[in-house]
Amino acid sequence: MAHIFFAASIQRHVATPEREIDARTLGEALEAVFAAQPRLRGYILDDQGALRQHLAVFIDGRRVRDRQHLSDAIGEESRVYVVQALSGG
């Protein structure tokens, strides 16, 4: 099973422990987490169901490409990291 992690900066708003998930896409993985933590959905996704701009998601060390439909593939041994994106000047 794949493993999903949420950064401490996200858990500050909604406690979301790391967990194993049975999913083939990022969308399926997030839906599994939202089933247990419904409040997290509004923090991770916008009104159209896309990833919010202030977040970065990595699957096996690669940044996800499909931020709107969340169709990036997840393997059985994948590691998914959801973190806040940093910006500044």
Automatic annotation (TrEMBL):
Name of the protein this chain belongs to: MoaD/ThiS family protein
Alphabetical list of Pfam families matching this protein: ThiS
Species per Swiss-Prot/TrEMBL record: Paraburkholderia silviterrae
Superkingdom of origin organism: Bacteria
SUPFAM superfamilies per the UniProt record, alphabetical: MoaD/ThiS
Cited InterPro entries: Beta-grasp_dom_sf, Mopterin_synth/thiamin_S_b, Sulfur_Carrier/Prot_Modifier, ThiS/MoaD-like
